[in-house]
Amino acid sequence: MQLRNKRRGNVQATLAGLAAGLFAASAASAADDTGSRIDSGISFYQEAGGRVRAIEPALNGTFDFGGQSILTLGIVSDTLTGASPNGAVPSTKTQTFVTPAHSQSSSSVTSASGGGTVVVVPSKTGPATVTRQYTVSPGALPLDPGFSDQRYALNLGWSQPIGGLRTVSVGGSYSTEHDYQAISATAGIAQEFNDKNSTLNLAVNFESDSSRPIGGTPTPLTTMSGELKGPNASRTEADVVLGLTQIIDRFWIAQLNVQYGTSQGYQNDPYRIISVVDPVFGLPTNYLYESRPRSRTKESVFLENKIHIDDDIVDVSARYYRDSWGLSSTTLEVSDRSALSSDLYFEPNVRWYRQNAASFYRSYLVGSQAIPQFASSDTRLGSFDALTFGVKFGLAVGNNSELTLRTEYYQQTGNQHPSGAIGQLAQQNLFPTLRTANIMLGYSFGL
Amino acid sequence: MATRRMQLNAYPLETALDEHIYFSKEGSSGGRGFAGGGCGCN
User: Fold this and answer.
1) Contact across the interface for A60 and B13, Cβ inside 8 Å
2) Using one digit for the tens of pLDDT, what is the confidence trace for A150-161?
3) Which of A23, A39, A139, A338 could form an S-S bond across to A444 if both were Cys, CB 3.0 to 4.6 Å?
4) Could you tell me which chain A residue has the CA closest to the CA of B33?
5) What is the pTM of this model?
6) Model ipTM?
7) How far is A208 from A265, CA to CA, in rounded Å?
8) Is A130 among the domain residues?
């Protein structure tokens, strides 16, 4: 009986993970035999070098209405502050950047605000132009010190068995922040077969995003300025996942997912610029807003195995990804949950990630050459390796409650000195290593 | 096997946190499910 329940649990867990598409609202935790429960947590995230800091409390409720009819509800809040790379290359000279500011005023003032100096230029014919100006020291990575945002996200999902072997699921999510809004809807169906040892899952997700940059949406490849820019921009995305979950034996479960997605519309980072340098000395002569294709298709294959070996539970997963921008990646991840006592366990984990750059990624543009149609210096689209090391401790509290503490370190390294760098750029670090740490405290309990 | 710890996504809050961080720092996403959760992630 337990195994049968477990099989049903895995059906719903898998389906919820796919169809709801909302990891925080996944019915996975409810789908096992513990019934309704509340999962809560708060995480603290920090990037080295005074970059982004985030505090993220999250709450996920899973409510079993009997007969495996499950409602999930999740809410997340992100508070982000700090400094974010603006995309320009370092220089041997001081660099000054100007960008639209948060607010407008009719008077002419100069003040320090948001990690820069706010300059208000009055106008007799229209609203005043309010700009924020910041400088970067020679040799330093250009960071915009005014990065700040507050994000709220809400997830809702429903999973319902139909007959003995089929489960359907629907869900939706909404998230909003100062300059971005996203809404999505998901639906999925799972079919068990092979004496309930196998489950085939199909899920689709539709998402509609609205980008509302501070100061408006810049035209790609135009010069960075403090002028107000264009209206909000939108983007839509559709994804489909086909998955197979297989119970290998009593101690081993495996999952294989194939995913395809396509997105259309505005895909730029509206604040991201790329330096244009002179062809001899490599000194910046201009800064252009980045330009990415308005269409993107993605494909990925994901395989996960979870195996119970003695007192340990080992999770091994791998993913291969590629997209129409020419970006591809390979991810390997391993964790081992090991019991220290009947109430206490620890779980180290390691993740390795290798990414090959998008075809239009480049650190800078050269003034003497033709400007390409697409160009981005966003290192997230570059080639790099990333490593994650983490450890988690879990303590059972009472009959059906658990307290967890988890910490992770993440490091991203790329080619700091690419060959052919022009002039002073040969001396600059064109891919500074990113180091981050996060710690999460969690508490969950059954209802 | 009939325990939470053997679920493929036993701790969805942790998975969501991880996916959100990776989504905001890397160029690829997805695989385990629909990632992102909608953010500008600048």
Assistant:
1) yes
2) 999 999 999 999
3) A39
4) A18
5) 0.89
6) 0.92
7) 10
8) no
